[in-house]
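User: Can you predict the 3D structure for this chain?
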Amino acid sequence: MAYEENFLPGEDDVFGDLNRLNSMLANLDERGLVLSLAAFAEEALRDLIRAYLMPGDAADKMLEGFNAPLGTFSARIRMAQALGLVTTHQANDLDRLRKIRNDFAHNWEPVSFINQRIAAHIRALNFHSLDDDYPETPIGKVRTSISLLLLELRVTAQTVRKRGGATLRGQHIIAGVLGDLDEQMATCKRRLTEIQEDLRSADGDRRRFLLAAKHRWEGKLEIVRLNAPRERQNDVRAIQAELNAWNRGPEY
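Assistant: Here is the predicted structure, written as structure tokens:
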């Protein structure tokens, strides 16, 4: 089965590696089949979670590198499920694949699908809705059920990339300004003028503190403007323009 041809023509970047995997599976023995499917599943989960997370070093360090919190198969399954990126059935089947993989990978003696524990995991695998043919053998069920599950992971990752994943929801609290509108404008102007004067001679940590305070009070003044009646908003804009003109001065 070539997924690219049967499901989403033209999506080479999404399904190219999946098609390469699929072309290999028929020639692999049980151990090779399980290890290849599990390795691909770990990679697919990594890509799926990364597509959802905010891009940057924080996401990369969560997923890869020494002692990465999401560096293991198990952790990626749980995180994908917690984020709503996989269904309960998908998470359960991925966990069954993980357990079968561990039995093959951590045992130096011959292991096969007739092993009682492995056979139980295979029987528990869900039949996939895209497959109309009953798998007559355990290896057929593993190959079909997991391959189609991997297809779903790739499709979900592509959907997340197109629609967008996590958005920044963290926020900083800014205290309001007391008084009526005229008092609020006067307070903001006075405080920003004081900060600007202090910046003339400040350096090091004190200068960084004052710049942060300046940014904070500029934000407060903008909130005052947004909350002001429409006929008074130009009064606030005049204060903002006056302060901005000072910022462009040669001594700033």
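Residues 132 and 178 are 69 Å apart (CA to CA). DSSP finds eleven helices and no strands in the chain.
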